[in-house]
Design goal:
The complex is a heterodimer of chains A (185) and B (452). With 185 residues, chain A is mostly helical. Chain A is built from nine helices and no strands. In chain B, helix 2 packs across helix 6. The chains are: A mainly alpha (185), B alpha+beta (452).
């Protein structure tokens, strides 16, 4: 998106309410941001809601973009914040799933993971509880620290760490369960 | 292993995208349309307010102008229904011919002894029939005039001579009509409408008055750490002179108001270094710093802390670390300046209490102030850096202004004016806050006026 020629002009036109420019801006980022939304959402409908609300915020707040950083990064941040708001609204309080999977060696996972597509991983993430999903997304993919996650999600730093740890364990279990049969160790 | 899971997910999702159903854009478009309608509506409100203002000014102007014209035209109408001199016989009264006293025709003429010409407000012309002429000739003769009481009748000889000699029909020349009409209104000449346009500029001292329902610590705290700022103001104006000394003024003025916040330590946002460089740009601060106007929303990489942490919102979404022992600027080296800029459409009345070669005047009125910019700057040394904006500032505010001015002539239609003015915001600019902030400013305007 940032490589899009005349980005500043398009942004200015969007600020003025130029619908064609808005559509152009949207279509340049929508698919990628939908990918982000899908990671945070429980299903496609929720992902579409996040995308929709997120882009409305983008258009309404375009004036605040200061051209200093990446525009895509700016939009992505708004989308992630929108996902966080949805998460807070739902106020999920899921009990931590303590079921233990059987142990698989690191070398086995190396192999299995390298075979998995983004769509497979997406399904795995979405099978996590909303809170684990959120913590894993923020930490592993967006690059937030536990301290930051604790503040964003209003949880303790230790909770963020344990949630991440549990999320990883569950992902391991699921990978093992779903794919061990089809993958030769 | 754990890290590897993270890396695999991160790698796979880095550029992951999926085709979005068209319905999402349709919904966004619909929502933007609604938003546009709302903004169009507020534009209409603005236009409506401006129209009311213009209508008010024009109404005032035309009302006043019509009053003058009516006075004159009434008299002209009475002239056009010219008194005819009728005479059925010598003893009949010539009662319809009305002559208004004026400076040209001193005192009214009353003809008695068979002829009675009652005074009226004015005469511009007299249409006389042939018969009337005879009456005039029969009744108004110099010898009869001589009989009239000197106190009752004084008609200038040229008027009488003209009247008597008039052929049929008789009309007074236009200049006579004008002269009579002007005399009646007390004017030497009829003055055209006077318009004045001007432009002026002023250095401004701006601060605010705080009011709270209950006196509280915050108010006194804010008063101790906040300070006035120097800014500027300027604009163009149009005056319509309603009367020799009174004019109504409108125009468009820009003004920058605000305050500064002192006693802050400024720190670098170290958390930026803790995130993946790829996402570093996404981690600009979103700290808020409360003050008497409203929370400041930062978009910079700085963290601002006062001695007590009183104003840092610890519940803000993104709070980052900083090294408390290592400020970039200590409290003596930097300050925050909250600038709020307005475009004002004023409606002022201006009265010249001294109307000589050098005029002195007073001006007072109200203004509608539209918010056009809201910025917060970090000022350190000679550097000024935009770091965010103040939340919750009203977009439309109303102010009262009072000014004293002096006007010095430069050329025939050009004057230089100097005008100290005080402006006070009648409404609180931060309606959602417990502490109401009413900005005010002192400014000394200087500029030029050109009259048409």
């Amino acid at each position: 998106m940032d490589k899009l020629d005349q980005l500043p002009e398009i942004i200015k036109a969007c600020i003025k309410g130029d619908r064609i420019a808005q559509k152009k801006l949207y279509h340049n980022l929508a698919d990628k941001m939908y990918g982000v939304c899908l990671r945070y959402a429980a299903n496609e409908d929720e992902a579409k809601d996040i995308l929709q609300d997120g882009f409305i915020k983008v258009f309404l707040n375009l004036k605040q973009f200061n051209y200093k950083g990446s525009f895509e990064g700016w939009v992505r941040r708004i989308i992630v914040n929108t996902a966080l708001e949805k998460f807070r609204d739902k106020n999920y309080l899921f009990a931590v799933n303590m079921t233990q999977g059987y142990e698989t060696s690191d070398s086995e996972y190396d192999h299995i993971l390298s075979e998995l597509s983004a769509n497979d991983l997406l399904l795995l993430i979405r099978e996590l509880s909303p809170q684990y999903q959120m913590v894993f997304n923020l930490y592993a993919i967006e690059g937030y620290s536990h301290k930051e996650i604790s503040e964003i999600m209003n949880i303790k730093e230790g909770t963020s760490k344990s949630n991440l740890s549990r999320a990883r364990e569950i992902l391991k279990e699921k990978i093992n369960k779903h794919y061990s049969v089809s993958v030769n160790f | 292993m754990s890290k590897q899971i993270d890396d695999i997910f991160k790698k796979e999702f880095k550029d992951y995208s999926l085709s979005v159903p068209d319905s999402v854009w349709e919904n966004i478009e619909q929502s933007l349309n609604q938003n546009k309608k709302q903004s169009v509506f507020s534009m209409y409100k603005l236009l409506a307010a401006a129209s009311i203002l213009i209508v008010a000014v024009l109404t005032l102007f035309f009302t006043f102008q019509n009053t003058n014209r009516n006075t004159i035209s009434e008299k002209i109408v009475s002239q056009s229904t010219t008194p005819e001199l009728k005479n059925k016989n010598k003893s009949d009264q010539i009662s319809q011919n009305k002559i208004e006293p004026n400076k040209e025709i001193e005192n009214s003429s009353k003809y008695k002894n068979n002829t009675n010409i009652e005074s009226t407000k004015e005469i511009n012309h007299i249409d006389l029939t042939e018969q009337d002429q005879n009456i005039v000739e029969n009744t108004i003769r110099f010898e009869k005039i001589e009989k009239l009481s000197a106190k009752e009748v004084q008609v200038q000889s040229n008027f009488i001579a003209r009247t008597v000699k008039l052929s049929n029909p008789v009309t007074f020349p236009k200049e006579d009509k004008d002269l009579i009409a002007d005399n009646l209104t007390g004017k030497k000449t009829r003055e055209p409408v006077k318009w004045i346009i001007g432009g002026e500029f002023a250095p401004t001292y701006s601060y605010r008055y705080l009011s709270a329902a209950e006196s509280n610590l915050e108010k006194s705290y804010y008063n101790s750490v906040e300070a006035p700022i120097s800014s500027y103001s300027g604009g163009v104006n149009v005056k319509i002179v309603l009367h020799k000394r009174l004019s109504v003024q409108t125009g468009v003025y820009y003004s920058s108001m605000g305050q500064s916040i002192n006693h802050l330590n400024v720190y670098s946002n170290n958390a930026i270094d803790k995130v993946d460089p790829e996402y570093r740009k996404d981690f600009e601060n979103t700290f808020t710093l409360s003050n008497s106007i409203g929370n400041i929303k930062f978009n910079s990489m700085y963290v601002f802390v006062d001695e007590t942490n009183f104003r840092i919102d610890i519940n803000s979404e993104n709070k980052y670390f900083f090294d408390a022992t290592d400020p970039i600027f200590n409290e003596l080296e930097a300050e925050i300046s909250q600038n709020i800029e307005y475009l004002e459409i004023p409606l002022y009345l201006n009265y010249k209490f001294i109307d000589r070669k050098i005029d002195l005047n007073i001006t007072g009125g109200i203004g509608a102030n539209m918010l056009i910019s809201n910025n917060v700057y970090l000022i350190h040394g000679n550097s000024k850096e935009n770091i965010g904006e103040t939340d919750g500032v009203n977009t439309m505010n109303y102010s009262g202004t009072f000014a004293l001015g002096i006007e010095l002539p430069i050329l025939r239609n050009l004057t230089f004016n100097l005008q100290p003015a005080v402006k006070y915001y009648i409404n609180a600019i931060n309606p959602d806050s417990d502490i109401e902030s009413h900005p005010y400013s002192f400014a000394v305007y200087s500029g030029f006026n050109y009259s048409f």
